[in-house]
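Cross-check.
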Amino acid sequence: MVEPAWTPGACAIVGIGATDFSKASGRSPLTLAAQASRAALADAGIDPRSVDGIVRCDMDLVSAPALADSLGVPDLTYWGETGPGGSGPAAMVGQAVAAVTAGLATTVVVFRSLNGRSGNRYGLVGERGAIGGEGSYDEFFLPFGMQTPGQFFAVVARRYAHEHGLTLDELTHGLGSIALASRAHANANPAAQFFDRPMTRDDYLASRMLADPLRLFDFCLETDGAAAVVVTTTERARDLAGTAVPVLSVAQGTGRGVQPGQMFPALLRPSITSWPSAAAAPTVFGRAGISPADVDVAQMYDCFSITALMQLEDYGFVAPGQAAHLTEADLSVGGTLPVNTSGGHLSEGYIHGMNHVLEGVRQIRGTSTNQVEGAELSFVTSAPPPGASALVLGADR
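Predicted model, tokenized:
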């Protein structure tokens, strides 16, 4: 098979924008999308009338034409979508890069908008569509008690501990380290929903068990809000007001034995403790010409703490079974690999991975509220189980 050509840094993210993250926005998803997109365009110094491309998540309620109308875009020459959900944002940026490099558009807005708390709550039974629809296979799971994402990831966590010979206390230590590092980062981020709510390990252990072995603080924050970025060529970016952050690499992967549905069918795979992120890893690092050891800071998709923990292994930052032994100090600014420096989905807000892209950009710009000194390579993931995508962002040289 011929490997597709890839030019590191040919395109860049030139603007980022977000709304506030809350439990009740009081605004429609379209309003949120427009506010985040306008903020991103203002950050880049780009007139909305210059936009000619839009990429959305396939689960978003806002269509590309609706957002274009709200922004005052005169003509869309490209629109696209990918997903589902959390596996999408890095791939959405990749789709924008592909459109720009192919000459299908010059200025592409990439966004995710949702009222994930006050509107449709993804974690509720029945929010994924009709029984048997779209190859969901829900009829093989729902009647037997497998009904929510929390239950799914609890099964994965238990299996992970079993395969690696970990006691539940050892597993809980690793999960808690991720939750604690995220919370500490959120405490320094005024935009985070847990900005003013510190947490100790005792607080974490005392939180109620929702799906054994996952506690309350192993779950992400259902959130209302939106986040957006603007992608164009790096050459054009140098003439803009915003600070450009080149996209050094982007990759997607499903791995072998890909199945339909968004979540539950993944339990039928031969292994449920190594995910599509393992398939994307060699591509995303290979295209950037780097190794995991070169990464300065990472934004790991964390719908649950176990999701981030397993990706640390899939992407080669630690050996299989070793992520559970990391401490919050290892994962914090100043540690071996600072992770989710805005607070992540566990403590900042859950915009299905799009807010991770924004924080990845801030780290390269040097504007994060938890800045990693001298950060030159920022890694962002959008996670399994149906598929995975990831980005490497780097300083403009």
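The mean pLDDT is 94. The first helix runs from residue 29 to 44. Passed to J.P. for a second look.
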